[in-house]
């Protein structure tokens, strides 16, 4: 291949020099590139409603965690446009591979809030049927879901079933080997998969500049032959348009894409994190001013598509959802704590036997029960199999 041909090939893979934006922070429409499609008005109105309800869901889950009714909750406040815009780009037959921070995406996909929070309550399963919802379990280890997403996308392609796979990844996940392997496999196979990197500037407490020296995370697709783009992740109109284009590109058999969405995590990493140790309030305030929900509302009002009544209706729906969530998470988990050890190994290790005995003794002491600590069938760990 000549240098000129090589350069032309690389140019087709490169993202825009600046993140794609269709709406300014004050809600003013920006010029749209030739050939670009703005999502339909009805879709944008639905997106606004979902964002209002989703934010209230996120805030309520955060409060419930502080009350001890959830074991942990990673808030996605500030990332509404990324998650909801991505979900709205999918069809029913498409698959979603989320991370642990993408509860709002699952909520927008239609999953029962009580089911999608099951894992975060401390259960051993994800709470929902991944096959029925075409949604993989929320992944806690960074980027390990990315190769799985490519494998499922390739399986769909080989079986001729159609469908596209969307894999959500954080900026920290792009530093993992699994992410690079997934990109490479996707590029080689031409799998119908879209990687959406939610660059919220921090991998827990590690800022982006200490994670990567690349000018943009979107450039990581170039080395694997994967076309890439970057978008203002707080601009739902642009995010939905860019992700939709990549999804339809994959659906048409034209292979994978990588999209970097620039956004920000307003809340701490989880309820166990003190974000004040590694970022200042001035930085957070700047990003609060770029609120994606407010930006979309201003845009829709500017275009005379949104009324006060519709805003009030969305807020009322959000409150009803929050009330239902509070009621549904009112009671304790029904499971036996000793199930924690039941499906780890077919033959438990000595360490697990010791740990189970310790927990059983603790439970017995706290319950005033000198039996098996809730293991009513009387079968010890040694008698169980995985």
Q: How would you summarize this macromolecular structure in one to three sentences?
A:
With 386 residues, the chain is α/β, with parallel strands linked by helices.
What does this structure look like?
This protein is an alpha/beta fold. It is 43% helix and 8% strand. The protein contains 14 helices and seven strands. The strands form two sheets. The protein has a five-stranded parallel sheet, sandwiched between helices. The protein has a two-stranded antiparallel sheet with strand order 4-5. The protein is globular. Residues 369-386 have low confidence and may be disordered.
Give, in order, the helices and strands.
Answer: HHHEHHHHHEHEEEEHEHHHH
Number of beta-strand segments:
7
Structural class: alpha/beta
Which CATH architecture of the largest domain would you pick? 3-Layer(aba) Sandwich
Reading side by side through the largest sheet, how are the strands ordered?
A: 1-2-3-7-6
List unreliable stretches of 5+ residues. 369-386
State the distance separating the first and last CA atoms.
54 Å
**Coarse morphology:** globular
Helix content: 40-55%
Alpha carbon gyration radius: 23 Å
Major sheet: size, sense and barrel closure? 5 strands, parallel
Q: What number of domains?
A: 2
Beta-strand percent range: 5-15%
- Give the count of helical stretches: 14
**CATH C-level label of the largest domain:** Alpha Beta
Write the CATH homologous superfamily of the largest domain: Thiamin diphosphate (ThDP)-binding fold, Pyr/PP domains
* Nearest-integer average pLDDT: 92
CATH topology of the largest domain: Rossmann fold
GO biological process, one term: branched-chain amino acid catabolic process
EC number: 1.2.4.4
Biased composition (Gly residues): 373-386
Region (Disordered): 364-386
């Amino acid at each position: 291949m000549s240098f000129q041909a090589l350069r032309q090939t690389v140019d087709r893979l490169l993202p825009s020099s600046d993140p794609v934006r269709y709406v300014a922070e004050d809600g003013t429409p920006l010029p749209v590139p030739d050939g670009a499609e703005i999502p339909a008005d009805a879709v944008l109105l639905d997106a606004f409603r979902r964002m209002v309800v989703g934010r209230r869901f996120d805030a309520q889950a955060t409060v419930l965690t502080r009350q001890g009714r959830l074991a942990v909750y990673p808030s996605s406040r500030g990332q509404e446009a990324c998650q909801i815009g991505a979900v709205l780009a999918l069809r029913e037959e498409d698959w979603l591979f989320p991370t642990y921070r993408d509860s709002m995406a699952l909520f927008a996909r239609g999953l029962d809030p009580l089911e999608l929070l099951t894992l975060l309550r401390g259960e051993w399963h994800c709470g929902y049927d991944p096959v029925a919802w075409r949604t993989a379990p929320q992944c806690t280890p960074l980027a390990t879901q990315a190769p799985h997403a490519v494998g499922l996308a390739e399986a769909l392609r080989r079986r001729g079933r159609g469908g596209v796979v969307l894999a959500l990844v954080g900026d920290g996940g792009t530093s993992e080997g699994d992410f690079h392997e997934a990109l490479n496999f996707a590029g080689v196979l031409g799998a119908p998969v879209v990687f959406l990197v939610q660059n919220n500037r921090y991998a827990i407490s590690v800022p982006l500049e200490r994670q990567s020296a690349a000018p943009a995370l979107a450039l990581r697709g170039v080395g694997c032959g994967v076309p890439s783009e970057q978008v203002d992740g707080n601009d739902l109109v642009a995010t939905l348009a860019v992700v939709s284009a990549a999804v339809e590109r994959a659906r048409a058999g034209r292979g994978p894409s990588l999209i970097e969405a620039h956004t920000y995590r307003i809340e701490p990493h989880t309820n166990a994190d003190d974000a004040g140790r590694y970022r200042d309030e001035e930085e957070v305030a700047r990003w609060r001013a770029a609120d994606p929900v407010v930006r979309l509302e201003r845009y829709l009002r500017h275009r005379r598509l949104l009324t006060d009544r519709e805003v009030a209706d969305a807020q009322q729906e959000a409150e009803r959802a929050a009330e239902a969530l509070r009621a549904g998470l009112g009671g304790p988990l029904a499971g036996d704590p000793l199930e924690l050890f039941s499906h780890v190994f077919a033959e438990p290790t000595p360490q697990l036997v010791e740990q189970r005995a310790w927990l059983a003794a603790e439970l017995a002491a706290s319950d005033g029960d000198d039996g098996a600590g809730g293991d009513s069938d009387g079968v010890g760990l040694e008698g169980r199999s995985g």
